[in-house]
């Protein structure tokens, strides 16, 4: 029990404590004030910026409104920040813009994470007009083991993930839906799915394929729908393994797919090995971001380094990856090609697709210059 983080605060003169829940491992705030509907947004924002957490005791809907007010203030630069921006060099490199964007995101998350909500032992919220979040918390945390405290921002993320899991994401290539679990990347960007669904399969048609880092299981399901008799889908995240198994069963292709816990490759060789690694070499700040950010390109380089040893003679490895990192100055095309060459691989072909997500065409996005040039590619690789 001593390893379980605890939040401590004082209620009147009485010391209190409860389990602290944080998906990304943020330590519990050291300064905690009890807050209710009488607290105005300007004071709350000042306290949050100073590192003081606000344990809410008022109406739940008012807490949500306060969080929205804090978000508006966080998104509006202060006079000092505007002055600093004007004094800054007129142009930044794409990499500098990316790192500044990530810093701003991190600071915003820290401030908004200072509004805290108590949870009873059964995940009920002991506040007026509070919704029923028990199912969402059970999916994210497992069975409750006593009272706890969580940031309202994180709790709303749990509820949103629960709704996505119920509703699912329609995948045209499957003629069905993928239901992402909490902490598992949702296939809302369909370009990489379309590439796997449309790229001609190696000849002769493979009877076996590996799906490396399966996540929700979407690519394994696409391969099964395309007629691959057996797919071994790997992941090292228990949430992903459970999510993939559930989705594959719901889609009726589970008899063709074996879900295996592994760091990258399963045992053996296959005539087709597919991998859609995280696209951006940067540090993730939460579990869900591991699907987007790959520190030092570790998964990408690991996949390339081990691919030749897991390809059957004449087989193909399909690397599906965006070139956003190249436009951000975080990884060059020359580096990627050098890693492919060093792994004893040759490029057999490449299929490209432009992104369709809203940010690609949003000129107000901080990374618009890079996003506007982004291309997602399926690289066909074989042993050199």
From TrEMBL:
<dbReference type="GO" id="GO:0036009">
    <property type="term" value="F:protein-glutamine N-methyltransferase activity"/>
</dbReference>
<dbReference type="InterPro" id="IPR050320">
    <property type="entry name" value="N5-glutamine_MTase"/>
</dbReference>
<dbReference type="GO" id="GO:0003676">
    <property type="term" value="F:nucleic acid binding"/>
</dbReference>
<keyword id="KW-0687">Ribonucleoprotein</keyword>
<dbReference type="InterPro" id="IPR002052">
    <property type="entry name" value="DNA_methylase_N6_adenine_CS"/>
</dbReference>
<feature type="region of interest" description="Disordered">
    <location>
        <begin position="72"/>
        <end position="95"/>
    </location>
</feature>
<keyword id="KW-0808">Transferase</keyword>
<dbReference type="InterPro" id="IPR029063">
    <property type="entry name" value="SAM-dependent_MTases_sf"/>
</dbReference>
<dbReference type="GO" id="GO:0032259">
    <property type="term" value="P:methylation"/>
</dbReference>
<dbReference type="Pfam" id="PF06325">
    <property type="entry name" value="PrmA"/>
</dbReference>
<feature type="compositionally biased region" description="Basic and acidic residues">
    <location>
        <begin position="10"/>
        <end position="22"/>
    </location>
</feature>
<protein>
    <submittedName>
        <fullName>Ribosomal protein L11 methyltransferase</fullName>
    </submittedName>
</protein>
<feature type="region of interest" description="Disordered">
    <location>
        <begin position="1"/>
        <end position="31"/>
    </location>
</feature>
<keyword id="KW-0689">Ribosomal protein</keyword>
<dbReference type="GO" id="GO:0005840">
    <property type="term" value="C:ribosome"/>
</dbReference>
<keyword id="KW-0489">Methyltransferase</keyword>
């Amino acid at each position: 029990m001593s390893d379980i983080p605890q939040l401590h605060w004082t209620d009147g003169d009485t010391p209190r404590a409860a389990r602290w829940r944080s998906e990304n491992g943020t330590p519990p705030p050291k300064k905690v004030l009890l807050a209710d509907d009488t607290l105005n947004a300007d004071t709350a924002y000042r306290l949050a910026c100073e590192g003081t957490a606000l344990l809410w005791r008022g109406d739940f809907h008012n807490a949500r409104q306060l969080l929205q007010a804090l978000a508006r203030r966080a998104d509006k630069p202060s006079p000092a920040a505007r002055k600093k921006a004007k004094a800054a060099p007129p142009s930044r490199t794409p990499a500098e813009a990316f790192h500044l964007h990530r810093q701003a995101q991190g600071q915003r998350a820290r401030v908004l994470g200072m509004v805290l909500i108590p949870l009873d032992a059964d995940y009920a919220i002991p506040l007026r007009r509070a919704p029923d979040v028990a199912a969402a918390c059970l999916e994210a945390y497992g069975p409750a083991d006593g009272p706890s405290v969580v940031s309202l921002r994180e709790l709303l993320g749990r509820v949103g993930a629960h709704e996505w899991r119920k509703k699912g994401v329609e995948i045209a290539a499957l003629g069905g839906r993928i239901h992402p679990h909490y902490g598992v990347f949702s296939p809302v960007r369909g370009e990489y799915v379309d590439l796997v669904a449309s790229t001609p399969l190696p000849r002769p048609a493979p009877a076996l394929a590996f799906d490396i880092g399966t996540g929700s299981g979407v690519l394994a399901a696409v391969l099964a729908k395309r007629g691959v008799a057996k797919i071994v889908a790997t992941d090292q995240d228990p949430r992903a393994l459970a999510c993939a198994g559930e989705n594959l069963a719901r889609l009726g292709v589970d008899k063709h797919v074996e879900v295996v816990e592994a760091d990258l490759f399963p045992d053996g060789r296959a005539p087709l090995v597919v991998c859609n690694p995280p696209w951006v070499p940067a540090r993730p700040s939460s579990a869900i971001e591991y699907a987007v950010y790959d520190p030092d390109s570790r998964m990408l380089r690991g996949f390339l380094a081990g691919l030749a040893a897991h390809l059957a003679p004449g087989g193909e490895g399909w690397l599906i990856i965006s070139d956003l990192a190249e436009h951000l100055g975080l990884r060059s095309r020359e580096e990627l090609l050098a890693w492919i060459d060093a792994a004893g691989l040759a490029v057999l072909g490449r299929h490209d697709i432009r992104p369709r997500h809203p940010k690609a065409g949003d000129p107000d996005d901080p990374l618009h210059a890079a996003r506007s040039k982004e291309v997602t590619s399926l690289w066909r690789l074989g042993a050199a």
